[in-house]
Structures are given as structure tokens and as C-alpha cells.
Amino acid sequence: MRSYKQPGSKRILTDERASARSVWSMYQRLFTHAREQWRKMLLALVAIIVISLMEFAIPQLTAYTIDHVIPDKRYSELLWIGAGILGAALFLGLFTYLSSYLLSYIGQHTINRLRNELYQHLQKQDMAFFDKNRTGDLMSRITGDVSILQQLVSSGMLQMVTELVTFFAIAIYMLYVNPQLTFLMLCTFPILFFFTRKVGKRMRSSFRAVQESSADVNNHLVENLSSVRLMKAYATEPYEAQQFQQRSIRNMQASLAATRISAMFSPAIDLLNYIGMAVVLLFGAWQAMSGAISIGAIVAFLAYLRLLQTPVRQLSRMINMIQQSAAAYDRISEILDTQPSVTEKADAITLPPLRGEIEFSHATFGYQPDLPVLHDFTLRIAPGTVTALVGSSGAGKSTVAHLISRFYDVQDGYVRVDGFDVTDLKLASLRGQLGIVSQDIILLNGTIRDNIAYGRPDASDQEIENAARAANAHDFIVSFPDGYQSAVGERGVKLSGGQKQRLSIARAILINPQLIILDEATAALDTESENLIQQALSSLLTGRTCLVIAHRLSTIQQADQIVVMEKGRIVETGTHAELLQAEGRYHQLYALQFPQAAAAKEPLIY
Ligand SMILES: Nc1ncnc2c1ncn2[C@@H]1O[C@H](COP(=O)(O)OP(=O)(O)OP(=O)(O)O)[C@@H](O)[C@H]1O
């Protein structure tokens, strides 16, 4: 009663329930994935029952030999008994092989499905989820944590089911043969049960710490190895090695802490087993001496006792595995339970072929809802026109582009494309019609052809070449020995900045989008490649609606409208000439880049 009133007890109670619920929900989810393998599961169960029967039969033969064959000198039966044991052993081997293969098959299929479910669930997450979660951590959940569950489903399940069936079969038989002896032997089990519950909970949290610390090692590796150039350029190898070592040590310490708890299990279970055995031996010997049971019966009883204790001894290993899997499953369900906030409505509509009209109406948005980045943002972009967004760094220009692609949802107001609220549209029908050329060019480790065809894998060679020509990329591509089949290296490391940019333009041209979002690169390119890129861009922009996020004001003077943003608000809108005339913020920005032209209020002429 006293402990019930302790402030922490309710929490512990809740933890225990949560822990039991999570092990249960782990089995439920695994079973959902395993369900379609029910025929194999049934076969495996039959195999397991046969194994138990064989294990049961062998001691029976021993008891029969001791009690009947030896005293009655039945020489002729010896051969049959030998053949019986050999036959049982052969069956045992065959069915152990069968059940082991079948359970592993079911396990591998279950895990494969779970891994795919997890990956597809990750794909559905919105950008805010990926802003929050680190790649290394997500990777370790999909690979590391899933592999831990794999152990449980493949070998663990086999062992657990076999041991349980054997345990119950033998316990029931023993109860039938000698209930007194069996009760005495089982008297240690409640102690074992409570010990397991108590320690199991602590094990689970220590396993979670191990998995988190190994995810931290993973995170460090992913970030570090993908920015190896930065590390080499700043000669920070010793610093990074130290950082890595610290994480590795934390992982080792967490593993040792988990081992300190889990290693207690084996000796404790052994001790309880020995106590049980001593009780059986003493009481059994006393019964045999008083003639209540035969010597053969006590030999068989001790053999069963050994069989009964094997599953109990395995229990420590299984509890370790279950607790470790439950900790891994907790981490996996954190992803599976996360619902994206950017979702498609059940009755979402497919966006018809795009005309290219964009409308923001009183849109308010913040990456954190209480910190708005765009305030009451209203803007209309007419089809087939070019709109340039300019303003100082952090003004919210890229955010406007993210909202059109619906990477995030506005908190207030709305964003419309061709008159449709973007939240009413099927995401693929919206995003599939947008061409995005961003300043962070993302190339995949594949060939040049693969990279251009990324948005349209079915494109013909001719279409790919036409897109590359329009993007001024064909000439440099064919100058490589392998042409379009040249590998670009991880993240395009084998290409120059200008070449990467032209490939990303070719990729956008190939999908022939009616709406282009161009986040202009700030990287200084030499005049020749800048001209090539400008030409490529003009072939991309012709006849389409275009939103250019401009950093170099030289490139946007022909834009139909220039929108000047500051701190998430529109401060000016007009053409280049109008804005220069107004002598406002645009004029200031222009004067910073081109002092003479700004003084004369003239467009820049090359
Ligand atoms: N994923 C994000 N999570 C949280 N805050 C963000 C995120 N992306 C941008 N921000 C913040 O939102 C604000 C607007 O950023 P945005 O990238 O839209 O500016 P920008 O005008 O495009 O800047 P630049 O010209 O430097 O590219 C900035 O204050 C930035 O710190």
C-alpha cells in the first residue's frame, strides 16, 4: 500500500504496462507481416511437435531398457532399441533442419516486409520530419534496429517455439507421472518469473541506450564521410578522429552497461535450476529407496528434468533477445507512429495539365509555427510569365518555392496553383508538373543518362540528347570517353560546378514542365560557363511560367515582375525599370551590385 502512494510508482506502473504493450504490439506487427506465410508456419509447427515427440521418446527407450530389458536379459530387443534410438535421432535431425529452414524463411520474409513498410512510411514523411531527424539515425533504425528484430524472428522464434512446446509437453507428462516431484521442481519458477520481470525492464532501457549510441556513431559517420572534402581542406582529421572516438567510447560504455545487467541472468537462472535439480534428486532418491518409483523412472525423470531445464536456461538468452528487440521495435514504431502533416486528402484531385498560374493569398508560414518566416504573403503569378524574387539572405525567397511544391503547408491563408488549393491536390500530380532547378544540385551516383532521365526513366535516347543539347550539356557529355554512360561519381564529384548545373537543367527540360522554379546558384562561374548556363536557362524558360529566386540582379532585368522581399514580407513589386525609378529597396540592392548603372537608372547592357 505504501509503495502505491509513492509519487514515482504510478509512472513505473505505466512504464511496465507500456513495456508489456510494446512487446505485445511488436509480436502483433510481426505477425501481421508473417500472416501470409501461414502454410509454412503450420508446417514448421508440425515439425516442432515432431521434434518434441522425438525428444520425449528417447528417454522412454532408456527407461524401458533399464527397467525391463536389462533385468529380464532380453538380448533380442537390444537391436530394436538401438534402431529405435537411431530412427528417432534421424527424425530429430530431419525435422530440426526443416523447422529451422522454415522459420528462417518466415523470419526473412517478415523482416523484408517490415523493412519495406518502414521505408515507404519514411518516404511519406514531410520535409519537416527530415529537417528534424538525422540521416544516420534514420539509417540505423532501418538497418540496425530491423536486423535486431530479424534475429528474433529467425533464430529466436524457432528456439522459443521449440522450447515452449517441449517445456509444456514434458511438464504435463511429468505432472502425470509424478505430480509431487514435478511441483517440487517447479517451485523455483515463480521466483524466476518475478526476477525476469524486474530485470527485464532495466535491460530494455539499457539496450535502448546501446541502440541510440550506435545511431549516434552512424550519424557522425554519415555526416563526416559525406563532407570529407571539408575535413581535408581544413585539416581537421585529428579533431574528427577524436569526435568519432568519443562516440565510439560512449557506445562501448552503453554496451557494457547493458551487459552488466543481462549477464546477471544466466548465473541466476542456473542457480535456480540447480536448486530444482537438487530437490528432485533428493526427493526422487528417497522415493526410489523407499521403493515408490523404479530406478529407470528416476533416470528418465532426471533426463526430462534436463530437457525441461534447457528451455529455462535458454530463457536468459531469449529475454535478452526479446528486450533488445523490444527496444529496437520502440525505435522503429516511433517512425511508424509518426504521421506526416503534409498529407493527401482522401478525395484529392489530380491536377490537370498545368497552365502555370500561382496565387498566394495572405499566406503565413513558419518552420516552427510560433516563428513565422512568411507574413501575410499575397502574390499572383500569371501563366507564361517570369517572376523574380529578390531580397536579402533569409528574407524567405526559397520558402515561397517550398510552399508551391507543398514541401510544407501554410499555417494561414492559402497557396493556389491554376486555381486549385495545393492541399486539395494529389501530391504527385502537383510535384510531377514542376521543374525545380535548385542551387543545391543533387546528382545521384549513376551515369549522366540516369541523372538526366531521373524524372522520366522511360525517356528515349533521342529525348535525353535533345534535353542535353537545349541545356548546352551535349558537347561536354560527348567529350567524355563513355559519353552519356559516364559515371558522375557520388553526388556528381566527377563533374565541374557548371557541368552539374547544366545536367540539372537538362533534367528539368526533359520533364517539360509548365512551371519552373529556379533557385539561382550563387556560385561564381567563369563568364563562359555562365553564358552557357544563361542560354540553357533561356531555352528552359521560354513559354513557361517561371519563378526565379535571384541573387544576381543582372539575370532578371527582363522579368515580367520583380518581387522584393524583406523579413518574410513583400516590400516592392514592379518591373526592373519601375523599381529603379521608385528608388526603394530594389534600387538599393541594385546599387550595391552595379553602382554606375544604378546611378543612371539604366538596365545593365552586356
Ligand atoms: N528547414 C528549415 N527549418 C527552420 N528554419 C528554416 C528552414 N529553412 C529556412 N529556415 C529559416 O527561414 C528563413 C527564410 O529562409 P529562406 O531559405 O526562405 O531564405 P532565402 O531568402 O531563400 O535566403 P537565401 O537568399 O540566403 O537563400 C531563414 O531565417 C531561415 O533561417
Molecular structure report:
With 606 residues, the chain is α/β, with parallel strands linked by helices. Among the domains are: 27-336, ABC transporter transmembrane region fold; 442-512, P-loop containing nucleotide triphosphate hydrolases (Rossmann fold). It has helices spanning 2-5, 9-34, 38-69, 75-124, 127-132, 135-177, 179-186, 189-226, 228-233, 237-262, 265-289, 295-336, 397-404, 427-431, 448-452, 461-470, 474-478, 497-510, 527-541, 576-582, 585-593, 595-599; strands at residues 358-365, 374-381, 386-391, 412-417, 420-421, 434-437, 515-519, 545-549, 561-566, 569-574. A hairpin with an 8-residue loop joins β1 (358-365) and β2. α18 packs parallel to α19. The protein starts with a helix and ends in a 7-residue tail after the last helix. Bound molecules: adenosine-5'-triphosphate. Adenosine-5'-triphosphate binds at residues 131, 367, 373, 391, 393-399.
